[in-house]
Amino acid sequence: VPTDNTVVSGIAALIQVAEQQQIPVISGDSGPVESGAVATIGIDYTKLGYQTGEMAAKILLEGADPATMPVETSNDVELIINPAGAERMGVELPDSVTERAGTVIE
Fold it and tell me: Does the pLDDT of residue 50 top 90, yes or no?
């Protein structure tokens, strides 16, 4: 599931069908995982907003030229898993995945 507002707005229906058909749902962000998707390796939107604010401060306070500033991306990602959602979709999460998870949705 991409980070698409249209798809995410219907995530409950998508999760329901995926569970019935035993099709794992992997998400682009944490919201759908909290709703029942199996997992994501996603960015933290709060941290991304902070990074964006720092870029704005460089422009507004330091006079940086946005046309010449380097493009920045967020490399701060986290593995978030939902073991119960995985089980309902017929997925067994290996211990190696569970151990790496930064967040486990209960």
Answer: yes
